[in-house]
Amino acid sequence: MNPIASELSMNDLNNKFFEIMQDEGVAEEATNFIYESVFDDVTVGFLFEFHHGLKTGLTELIEGEKEEEDVYKIVNSPECDVFGFSILKKTPDSNCSCPNCERPVSATRFAPHLEKCMGMGRNSSRIASRRIASNSREPTSYAGLLSDDEDDADWAGGSLQNERRKRRIKNNNNRKPNKLHNGNSRNNNGNSNSDANDGGATYETMTANEKKNLLLQICGVVSEHTKKLCTRSTRCPQHTEDQRRALRNSVLEPSTPESASMGAAADEAGSPPDSSPSSSCSSSSRKRDRHKAPPKINKRNKEPANRD
Amino acid sequence: MTVNNTIAHQRLILSGDRERFKELLRRRLIECGWRDQVRMLCRDVVKENESNQVTFDMLVTRVTPRARALVPDTVKKELLQKIKTHLLTQKDQ
Question: Which stretches of the protein fold into SGF11-type zinc fingers, per the record (chain A) (predicted)?
């Protein structure tokens, strides 16, 4: 082919070209052929360019290192946030088990939990000691029926502690009557009723002056459910100004039937006056419920061991 | 047949029109992003053979078939149309 082409003169080539171009099909085929040839040239040109860049390091200089896109990809899975971190707050290794109740506790909540569980800290010690008191009170009353494997010395100590606890509870009672819910406190009823300050909570045993002083300091509205006084400030949000005014009117008026019946009801209840509204009741009972929970868990923990 | 093709090709080269078409195709391929796609193919080839040297022949044999398929139809049609009309209008001279 090439020899033929080279042998042709420019004139011959033109003549031949016009001759073959008469045929449409030949023109079509020639077009494809030329296109392929041109395309190959262009491709090879680009490849030369790339190869040159590659070998001389130009490509890397111009385009730089390719970025790792995986690092910045937005993670779209339910357990992770967009950065791919786990959204689960508690990881297993941050759990400590409480030495007292053996419940797993998050490390960040461990100190508060210990405070509650073992009774360290101001409020918690009261709660815990009361809890212990209520647990140990039952056995002491049936001391004669107890099994022999209980140490006598311990019991003596226990009752001593009990006395101390009772005293402390009584003090609490005087200071904050609403903290008292425990059956334990019933033992102190005789004492506390004779206490002027304590009895005052019923309005009945108070002198007019005492009532006045008391009502200047506290809200004093008698709760419908607990029949107790509200010991919050005079601006307590739970009761309305109208309620307070009505109560003051009825209480400061001597020997109104309402106040008398109120006092009687409070006495009838037999529990020491508790002016707390239902909220404090429920909160402390909740606390006690929480403290009751651990033994259940312990039992569950022990079950597998028994089975084994 | 091949002789005819060669004649047409030869005449196109002599008239300098082949160079024109080549430049046109080159520009079109850059415009449509084909060159960048081919460059990515080349990178892939380089990545695959990271251990041994990448030769130019290797690039040609690996990339050319895929590059040919990547050419947009519009560009190819335009080129074919232009070459054909060029060839057919030549004969009238």
Answer: 96-117
